[in-house]
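Each record in this resource describes a single protein on a pair of labelled lines. With that in mind, the following record should read easily:

===
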Amino acid sequence: MVFTVLKERVWKKLQGWKEKLLSRAGKEVLLKAIVQYIRTYMMSLFGIPSGLLDEINALCARFWWGVRGKDRKMHWISWEKMYRAKSHGGLGFRDLKVFNQAFLTKQGWRLLCNQDSLVHQVMSAKYYVRSSFLEAGRGLDPSFIWRSIWGEKALLLEGLKWRMGDGTQISVEDAWLLGDSAVVVPTPNLECSANL
């Protein structure tokens, strides 16, 4: 599998550090700075299988709580609770599944907003010639990149709303809100004014 390189890199980074030499703060910095940022490029283009992300999280949890040879120490708190912000009793680690979703949703936002970009031109020529990214279907035999970005379109649609403006571009079926606080869905005459 192509994505096993992610797990192997995490494993190599963790094996390079001796557990006894690092304090809890040192382990936290190592996990946040090195392990959780390995290959964010891959996460921004591909939907990484959730089973693999669970395995990477398990490696991080084993490193955090400690492992000596084949003996594993007790995990006193679930790794999911450690995702919480420090102000809410967690340690602020990133949930890799949510991180992957956020990256892919941002790519969808870029396809929606940056219509002059080369990526938009290539994707629109192949997958949505006569429509916009929001109306695009999955297509027949799509690339893994397109399937990954298209799969997070529903998450993007949850946060998009029309800003009224003069009302000429709004359809009755579209979701819309009054006021300046609404997130803007780009139209041909309207630039993207909100960033993810």
In short: The chain has two domains: 4-94, 100-159. Helices lie at 4-15, 24-33, 40-45, 50-65, 96-113, 118-127, 144-151, 153-159. The first strand starts at residue 67 and ends at 68.
